[in-house]
Amino acid sequence: MHPIQRVYNAAVWAAQPLLRRKLARRAEAEPVYGVAVQERFGHYTHAAEIQAELVWVHAVSLGETRAAKVLIHALRLALPGMRLLLTNGTATGRSEGERLLDPGDIQVWQPWDTPCVVQRFLTHFKPRIGVLIETEVWPNLVLQSQKNGVPLVLANARMSERSSRKALRWPALTRPVFQALTAVWPQTESDAKRLQQLGVKVQTVMGNIKFDAQPDALQCAQGRRWRLQNSRPVALLASSREGEESAWLDAWLALQRAGTNVSELQWLIVPRHPQRVNEVETLFISHGLAVSRRSQWRETGLDGPDAQAAQADVWLGDSLGEMALYYSVAQVALLGGSFAPLGGQNLIEAAACGCPVIMGPHTFNFAQASDMAEQAGVAVRVADMTQALEQTHLLLREAPALAKISDAARAFAKAHEGATERTAQAVLQAMS
């Protein structure tokens, strides 16, 4: 064992008490973090004797779990009677993952990355194969799987320039880990090149399975009804991250001071992390904005916003699993995570819903999808939040042009489908 790996193992072992404290703190705002904490340390209440072989899928958070949904469906079709072992790392991922379970499936937390914890996980469940989604390559998770003869593949793999630079700083740790993966299937040629620098033998670029995730038809229909019922066009700040709501507020107030009729638009803001909703609401109210929350509409028993909500400056999306609804009610969406140096969020769902996108300068987590959307004319890149709001007002005054962009967005999403079936077939080959 290389000395750097010994250092890593000592660090993750020593961090376990800190992890427990962090989980306890987070559970105060998100109770799911307090559920089955011992699973993270390799202790399970599930029966140790698993009769059927398990296909293990690891999707750390909400975005990865949504991506895993279409792949899990394709694997069930290819492997009738398949039993799923689903692991997640975040509360939103676990909550979303519960929706993907069939009778006989198992869901547990991702094991903390020490050799003994990962070994307990593998010994207990004995998965037939492991499928990691996108970026979740943990040293002991990979090396212990190899030691136990469990094929471990990285599906829908992506590697940003920033992540690549970090990984290359510690080649003695990262290269053996990436080389121990049974297979890696990148989304793009750029991802493939960066992964090859880490010693990965990339055979096939599969594409992005998120293009195969079809938006919920009922949510889309509901969103379109809301759009028709509302007297003002709706603009969306989607999956906003910390600091972006403040930047939006500053830009909104600046436009107001400059004489722009900001009330001509209805703004819908959906924070990426639900535990921040109260904080965001307080921010807006403290600056005199009227706020109406999605959860309040449900309490009235109405299908959508009521008369009082229609007068609010901001609708606040405080629900999980309804992004298709939000993208369908909006005529334009600002891409959260791209106005701060956070790498941006996934714009594919917006395109599939026919919602044009305005994105900031930081899209390194989804660089190729963002560039392709910009080249296809379904996304516009701006320098900052002020330009984003100015561009929003301009776009929403050009209804015919906006309708063409909406149609082009759906066509763009449709044109890049197919990665899921290719990936499912590759998983089958890795199992043989």
Description:
This protein is an alpha/beta fold and 432 residues long. The protein has two domains: 19-208 and 418-431, 3-Layer(aba) Sandwich (Rossmann fold), CATH 3.40.50.11720; 217-415, Rossmann fold (3-Layer(aba) Sandwich), CATH 3.40.50. 47% of the residues lie in helices and 14% in strands. Strands 9-10-8-7-11-12-13 form a seven-stranded parallel sheet, sandwiched between helices. Helix 3 crosses helix 19 (419-431) and helix 11 (244-257) crosses helix 17 (385-395). It is globular.
Could you outline the blueprint of secondary structure elements for this entry?
Blueprint: H1 3-14, H2 16-29, E1 54-58, H3 62-78, E2 83-88, H4 91-98, E3 106-109, H5 115-125, E4 129-133, H6 139-147, E5 152-157, H7 161-168, H8 171-179, E6 183-186, H9 189-196, H10 217-229, E7 234-240, H11 244-257, E8 266-271, H12 277-286, E9 291-293, H13 294-300, E10 314-316, H14 323-329, E11 332-335, H15 348-352, E12 357-359, H16 367-375, E13 379-381, H17 385-395, H18 399-415, H19 419-431
Parallel strand pairs: 1-2, 1-4, 2-3, 4-5, 5-6, 7-8, 7-11, 8-10, 9-10, 11-12, 12-13
